[in-house]
């Protein structure tokens, strides 16, 4: 038998229980909100759409193979939002099929460093597919110096650290500061160029103690494991990885969620471009993802099965104009004003560019 007690007692008892429930609910929500705020990744950079549309043009321009047009910034992709860019140094590592430039964007008040991806072009999809298939089997195979348990992709690491690209970049950054002062540094690139951009940004922070380094990449593959991603996000928090719809490359090398410490892992923050809607009511969304680097609601929520989505971002083509199998176009001016080493690698510096422009405009004799 249950003794109910007086009605007024039962009413007070219900109010008391309700008050306890409300307090517990409020406390629970408060704890959740605090945890969510802590996970709001305030240390990570905010996404800037306008900056992304500018940097994607730099990431496109670095694919140009006509070196004279590129180092004089007169190429077909060297206008629009990047007009007036002052090239400090153009680097071409012919031996490893790599290309990069360093210059100053006065409208951004920043040094811009751009890296070319692989020699991608629609007419040679087989070569892209071969590269992509190779990424499926890539294992973490090198320890990143000074970072316990951090492992990275040997090929991407070596492309930046073990070629003529790195010393040329560091030298050009110092020269840019001599000309323009201590500017911010923005590093960008597409595909493999994005992977190199990430290593470059980290290198500038760790080894040159550069301040105000920002990295924004497009269609970048994974480059290291979770330990590396954690170190990277702490050291270069001002980083954005833009991914596009079903682009296959950001899904590679594969991420195995059941082996979080042993698998490749993206660093944050991702911004995922994708279309929503049906029929004619379709529009593009730019989703700013969480701070995990592997947000299941962003590009990981779809199948990464599109090469076409890899080659165009914001309507800008990120590929070579034509297929030349790592070829470059050099006219007599490029040969005359560039510095070439014994392996055929080429550097075009600001001084030689200015000298060429002066002599060309005055019609004087070229040395």
Keywords:
hydrolase; 367 residues; ten-stranded mixed β-sheet; 14 strands; 20% strand; hydrolase activity; Rossmann fold; disordered N terminus; alpha/beta
Q: What is the CATH topology descriptor? A: Rossmann fold
**Run of helices and strands:** HHHEEEHEEHHEHEHEEEHEEHEEH
Q: Measure the end-to-end span.
A: 111 Å
Give the class from helix and strand content and strand pairing.
alpha/beta
CATH architecture: 3-Layer(aba) Sandwich
Summarize the biggest pleated sheet: 10 strands, mixed
Tell me the name of the CATH class: Alpha Beta
- Please bin the fraction of helical residues: 25-40%
Ranges where pLDDT stays below 50 over 5 or more residues in a row are 1-5, 12-40
Q: DSSP strand (E) fraction?
A: 15-25%
The general outline is globular
Radius of gyration: 25 Å
Walk me through the structure.
- By secondary structure, this protein is of the alpha/beta class.
- It has one domain: 3-Layer(aba) Sandwich (Rossmann fold).
- 37% of the residues lie in helices and 20% in strands.
- The protein has helices spanning 7-38, 49-61, 67-71, 125-136, 154-161, 165-180, 192-207, 226-235, 308-311, 332-337, 350-362; strands at 86-93, 98-105, 110-115, 142-143, 151-152, 184-190, 213-218, 239-244, 270-278, 281-288, 312-313, 316-317, 339-340, 346-349.
- It has a ten-stranded mixed β-sheet, sandwiched between helices. A two-stranded antiparallel ribbon has the order 4-5. The chain has a two-stranded antiparallel sheet with strand order 11-12.
- A hairpin with a 7-residue loop joins strand 4 and strand 5 (151-152).
- The protein is globular.
- The termini are far apart.
- The model is unreliable at 1-5 and 12-40 (pLDDT under 50).
- This is Fungal lipase-type domain-containing protein.
- Residues 112-254 form the Fungal lipase-type domain.
- It comes from Populus tomentosa (Chinese white poplar).
- One of its GO terms (molecular function) is hydrolase activity.
- Residues 1-30 form the signal peptide.
């Amino acid at each position: 038998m249950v003794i109910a007690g007086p009605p007024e007692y039962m009413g007070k008892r219900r109010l008391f229980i309700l008050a306890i429930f409300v307090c517990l609910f409020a406390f629970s929500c408060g704890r959740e909100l605090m945890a969510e705020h802590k996970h709001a990744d305030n240390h990570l950079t905010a996404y800037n759409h306008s900056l992304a549309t500018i940097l994607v043009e730099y990431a496109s321009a670095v694919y140009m193979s006509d070196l004279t047009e590129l180092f004089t910034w007169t190429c077909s992709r060297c206008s629009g939002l990047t007009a007036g860019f002052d090239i400090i140094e153009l680097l071409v590592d012919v031996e490893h099929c790599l290309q990069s430039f360093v210059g100053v964007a006065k409208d951004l008040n920043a040094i811009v460093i751009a890296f070319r991806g692989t020699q991608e072009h629609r007419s040679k999809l087989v070569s892209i597919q071969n590269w992509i298939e190779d990424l499926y089997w890539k294992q973490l195979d090198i320890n990143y110096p000074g970072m316990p348990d951090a492992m990275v992709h040997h090929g991407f690491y070596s492309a930046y650290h073990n070629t003529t690209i790195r010393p040329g970049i560091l030298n050009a950054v110092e020269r840019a500061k001599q000309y323009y002062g201590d500017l911010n540094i923005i590093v960008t690139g597409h595909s493999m160029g994005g992977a190199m951009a990430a290593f470059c940004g980290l290198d500038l922070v760790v080894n040159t103690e550069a301040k105000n380094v920002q990295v924004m990449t497009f269609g970048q593959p994974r480059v290291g494991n979770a330990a590396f991603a954690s170190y990277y996000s702490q050291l270069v928090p001002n980083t954005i990885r833009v991914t596009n719809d079903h682009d296959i490359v950001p899904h590679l090398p594969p991420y195995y969620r059941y082996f979080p410490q042993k698998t490749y892992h993206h660093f944050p923050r991702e911004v995922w471009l994708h279309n929503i809607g049906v029929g004619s009511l379709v529009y593009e969304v730019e989703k700013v993802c969480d701070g995990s680097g592997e947000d299941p609601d962003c590009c990981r929520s779809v199948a990464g099965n599109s090469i076409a989505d890899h080659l165009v971002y914001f309507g800008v083509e990120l590929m070579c104009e034509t297929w030349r199998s790592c070829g470059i176009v050099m006219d007599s001016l490029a040969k005359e004003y560039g510095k070439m080493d014994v392996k055929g690698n080429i550097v075009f510096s600001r001084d030689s560019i200015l000298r060429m422009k002066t002599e060309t405009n005055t019609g004087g004799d070229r040395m």
